[in-house]
Amino acid sequence: MARNLRELRRKIKGVQHIRQITRAMKMVATAKLRRIQRTVENSRRYQEELRCLLADVARASMGVDHPYLQAREVKRVGLLIVGGDRGLCGAFNRQIDELAVAFVAAQAAPVEVITVGRRMRRYADRHGFNVVSSHAAVEHADDPEIEQIIGQVRSWYESGYVDLVQAVYARFDSLVRHPAVSEQLLPFSPQAFAETVSDFALRPVEYIFEPPAAQLLAELLPRALEVEIAQILLTTQAAGQAARMTAMSAATDNADEMITELTRSINRARQEEITAELLDVVTGARALQS
After folding, report:
1. Edge-to-edge strand order for the sheet containing 130-135?
2. Closest Cα to residue 225, out of 257, 263, 187, 198?
3. pLDDT band at 63, cuts 50/70/90?
4. pLDDT per residue as tens digits for the range 107-137
5. How many CB atoms lie within 10 A of CB 48?
6. Which domains does the chain have, with CATH numbers?
7. Best CA proximity match to 5, nearest among 199, 185, 265
8. Which of 37, 124, 131, 216 has the largest CB neighbor count within 10 A?
């Protein structure tokens, strides 16, 4: 019985140590999420306004021939996979990986891959993807990795090396909702941009452009691509922190439940031990009396 009590106490100490770690990780994820969530929300509003402006200018400059608007014959596909550097965040990285695998399997043309996040590079190597370059996960809006990734995607498409660029990432909708999504980056479809903005139909229709709409569109398209990629990197980081916070919160709750159950087991074992000792005393006393 004493051995069982020692084992139960040892288990409680182990679970308490795990609970301390999971609580600390939850607090760190919460702090990082608060820091990046405001950036993501502000960037999203800027992204929506830019999409509206791009749709307006594209509508006023119909027939403009720009490389970012040309639908080419797809001979090679570029895929940007954005995930996290670390685990302990539930199924966050796994969902992105599964979506990327499904996209690659559906392509008839060869696929070149850029990975963001060490987990995504590990998954890509495991699946045998042709990885052109890999980057660490983006931590903040001023991360130099953002400019490098944007430059690689632009040179990919502008040089004609790839004919279509797709992004697979996690979109941060809320603390509990951050689905893995697949989105086409290039070529652009301004009409599709307009459909994603709810108040687009309420905007004025007639505009006077200075400089001309075609020239303005040529300036806006590269900027729009930069904003889209930056938003993808930042929203995935926010989604990863939200997933880790949720996972560590659940782990902490499970640890609390385990400690409660183990404490009850100790109490029952001590009660049984005390009852057994009392029975021995009573039995001995009766034996002496007889």
Report:
1. 130-135, 111-116, 77-82, 164-170, 180-186
2. 187
3. low
4. 999 999 999 999 999 999 999 999 999 999 9
5. 16
6. 27-245 (3.40.1380.10)
7. 265
8. 124
Contact 156, 78 (CB under 8 A): yes
User: For residue 288, what pLDDT is reported?
Assistant: 79
Query: Mean pLDDT over residues 253-277, rounded?
Result: 86
The catalytic site residues sit at 89
Percent of the residues in the chain that have a pLDDT greater than 70, as a whole number: 91
Query: How far lies 211's CA from each of 25, 58, 205, 208, 220, in Å?
Result: 52, 14, 18, 9, 12
**Inter-residue contact 287 to 30 (CB < 8 Å):** no
Predicted confidence band of residue 281 (pLDDT cuts 50, 70, 90): confident
Whole-angstrom Cα distance, residue 76 to residue 162?
5
Across residues 160-167, what is the average pLDDT?
94
